[in-house]
Amino acid sequence: MTIDxxxxxxxxxxxxxNMGGAGEPSAMIRIAQAAEAAGYESVWTGEHIVLPxxxxxxxxxxxxxxxxxTAVALSFIAAATSRIKLGSGIIxxxxxxxxxxxxxxxxxxYLSGGRLIFGLGVGYLEPEMTxxxxxxxxxxxxxxxxxxxxxxxxxxxxxxFDGEFVTFSSVTANPKPVQASIHTVVGxxxxxxxxxxxxxxxxWYGFMRDPETAASDVTRLRxxxxxxxxxxxxxxxxxxxTPARRLAPGDLEAYSELGVDRLILQPGWHRGxxxxxxxxxxxxxx
Length: 286
Hints:
Layout: E1 11-15, H1 25-37, E2 42-45, H2 70-78, E3 85-88, E4 91-92, H3 98-112, E5 116-121, H4 126-131, H5 139-155, E6 159-162, E7 167-171, E8 183-187, H6 191-200, E9 203-207, H7 211-225, E10 238-242, H8 251-258, E11 262-265, H9 273-282
Parallel strand pairs: 1-2, 1-11, 2-3, 3-5, 4-5, 5-8, 8-9, 9-10, 10-11
Antiparallel strand pairs: 6-7
Helix pairs in contact: 1-9, 2-3, 3-5, 6-7, 7-8
């Protein structure tokens, strides 16, 4: 998205490559390879480390839903593909130990030849946060500091970091990512998520947004871009959206006019392999 409102046709991507029917090993590879062959720009994981059992709001899925770990799934896919980008949609950052996650993601970017898109968010499921020994309070501040600490490890040697939640002194982590700055996308619909995307990320990700709600999101992002400084090296703010419905006539044009850069389509975690492959073909970018 450019702040002046210019538009272009969004890239197509595929959500849920590690979930449900797509999360079976052979299915994951077949679907990722089919998406690459059909011209999709990227495949994206979903993530919940644990889910409440029994399911209760606001949990998004039944506890028996298969969700393969993001870094493992994307590494598995990287070995069987050559071009398609690999998105985490999204890693719940405050639940992770930042130095360990930095190592995993740097290794994934290194092994894939620089194909990682690091989608992150702050989380919202209290039972999951508790299971990961992470307090709900101040999870936004924790996420901001974790990202800064991870970037220090990705870009320097003998680096030190002295924060409220993370401290290390004169340490080095190799291999470094292939990308000089791992492409980072912030998920979330709050004002704070929008501010975080503007200030520290390459892009913003809205999940389950129809053209009307996406229009409201984009308006807010444009307004907030006047209030907060954006580092020049991050470039124009990239907008990714997972539509709230199957694309209807006129939807693609509507998203394009809003300046959406990437549509991350969701075939549905409950579908079987053949149904997902058919969805990939039916919704191919061409």
